[in-house]
User: Fold these one by one.
Assistant:
Number 1:
Amino acid sequence: MDRMSGELPPEIGAAWKALEARTAERAARVDVERVAAGVLDRLRREGAEAPRFRWMSPVALRAAAAVVVLVAAAAVVRLTTGGRESAVRLPVGIPAMDSLSSRQLEAVWEAAGEVSSAADSVVPASLGGSLDDLSEAQLEVLLASLNGAEG
Amino acid sequence: MGVPALSVAADGDLIARYLAGEEAAAAELVRRHAMALARFVAAHGAPDDELEDLTQEALFKAFRALGTFRGGASFRTWLLAIGGNVLKDRRRRWRRHQVVALTPDIRDPSGDPGAQAEAGWTAERLQEGIGKLARLQREVFLMRAQQGLGYEEIAGGLGISEGAARVHYHHAVKRLKAWIA
């Protein structure tokens, strides 16, 4: 079985063979049928592991993306008006973003690009409609806004 | 065409059949891979009285997480990697005990008492050395030297690059050589 042991240097090759003979002897005492019965019994009792996350459906993904864009727009409005405007309140809650995996967040971000044109009307023309145009400070506000919406 | 008998079905088919609810497919996978897993676990220095339990634990965890198996490596390599995780949790306990008494059981076929003693001593030293390797070095070394896996397969199972697998193997061999010198 130890097909690669031939490539071991002679200093450890002989010791490895002796060790492997002993290892095989010890492993042979394991009762495979008893192991199989034990595994199946535990699987019946404890079942499969719950998935850590589920992929969002495309519709949910677009809805989440739209929310991201709307929150971004609201944040930008607030930033550019120096808070003089009354706060823009969204009629929907933000899903807990920290429950999404990084791949899901990337997907949300990508989808946000697709729906951002629909939100042009709420983003000041001077800043354009794309999230890519936001400065670092604006992105910080956006993140703070997202955190606020989650809280 | 009918469904192939369990004993001749490929691992991938057995996995699919188990996930579809065919329990016997899981039993067949256990029969195929339990012994290799037990050898892998034993070579890590697991005590005799824990071998079966560790083998069962790793298989149980593997089947429980089978939905996450993506086929980046073979089912056996993936299983060995899970075995490595199970072992990690138990190693601390083993360090507190002298787990394997190799010397009395290792016999040189020549019957030469001097050779027997020498073989026993070096094998015991080697077992100690394997136990002292860094975890990835130990797993890569055993996957290659004992299980005969290629670097690409090992890399896929452990989630490391092929180059890293080579480096870990060569480091392990160097350290083992120095250990038993």
Number 2:
Amino acid sequence: MNSSALTIKTLNHNFGSLKALDNIDITLNEGDYSILLGLNGAGKTTLFSLITRLYDNQTGLIEIFSHNLKKNPTKALANIGVVFQQPTVDLDLTVEQNLQYHASLHGMRKKFALNNALIELKRQNMENILKKKVRELSGGQKRRVEIVRALMHNPKLLLLDEPTVGVDIESRKLIVKHVKSLCKEKQLAVLWATHLIDEVDQDGKLIVLHRGKVLANDHVKNILRKTKTKNVSNAFDYYTKD
Amino acid sequence: MNIFQYYLCFKGIVFRESLRFFYQRERFFSALVRPLVWLAIFAVGFRSFLGISRPLGQPENWPYPISLVPYELYIAAGLIAMIQLFNGMQSSLSMVYDREMGSMRTLLVSPFPRSFLLISKLVAGVSVSILQVFAFLMIALFWDVQPPTFGYLTVIPALFLSGMMLGALGMFLSSAIKQLENFAGVMNFVIFPMFFASSALYPLWKIRESSEILFYFCSYNPFTHAVELIRFSLYGQLNEKSLVFVSIYLLIFLILAIYGYDPSKGVILKKKV
């Protein structure tokens, strides 16, 4: 039986009087590939900010591999790899220097960390970019470097917040394919936030987030059956239309 | 996480800051231009009628081995502190920028305690400011600003402490500033009042002769104590009062900065990062 990678229970979050998240319950197991689908402003980035402890949850519970994020952030965060919506690589530094910096933030030895990164870069035929400045890379390459970086410390839960924003169609396909294969091979739990319906994997799980509420959370096939719709787009409309 | 991993993390943060400093040499040189303009134009212009003489009956306020010091020698300590003040504000500006651009998140999601990450970032910034100070001191030799040789060594701990204090102030401000655009306000409300209401350009006993209120304001200005700590240490002496003030202010600003970036308490909670 798979163990729980991420457990979120009765999570609420407000920005002043604005209710950004309303009673969220989500569970992800090892090897799960889940798409968090929602329009802009649905609360996806707020949810990611809470899971990565940029700010603490005001109510409810977040556990990562059974470590309570609020009470034991060190152990909980060590299991997470994150790709944020906005690029977070330093443009003035080389790919290697960026990766090295990330490794140090996880207390890893440079050599060991770069070996890990090199394996990932080779998988994507990108090993020759190590000495290049990030500024010289294409949008798609930058995002893939961020994925490589997020995996350097061997996390068991990968969070991606709209990782394909600003990336061309070809690079988008490559990124989606790569993350899916990682999920299968490494039994990585993946939570992928997006507003692009075509990024939803028919074999994976789908979480529909709308105005801070989870409206659906199940395998795509089950959701299509329940809503009696033919595709994810129609199912999404079914849940979100007023 | 063990101690060696803490060391690796600290080293990585300092290394990154050094690399950024190496790649942004323009920033380094422009930070030098500001105090050099004060030294080469302002101080030289005022030299003929602004020499500072030893105050009567106040030996504790006079570190110099001579009774009358040329103005450029007097303001050197203030200009050194000015470099550190601007460096502290510059790094806080870059923190606001990093936060808006997203790269701050990389640091904040590290599994190490946030207070450790912030202090490491502070130390990294201070190391860069100390290099800037020494570059300034080398150039200042051309204007006969020449403390005793041992002064170059004894000033280092003072620079570290004052740099940490001013950097912590900048860090706290960066946690409180919501947007990059608001940073201009900091220039008007923090940097200029701090600099001009201090002993950087004129001694406190001279200020007292003109305004008692301003004197008290200057006496409690953290920047005054950073300047005095540096001034005395350049001559191998310890200004104990300033050391106490700088240490207390450092502690206060550090607590506020850590509070500001605390995920459950600080102002970071009230805005979208």
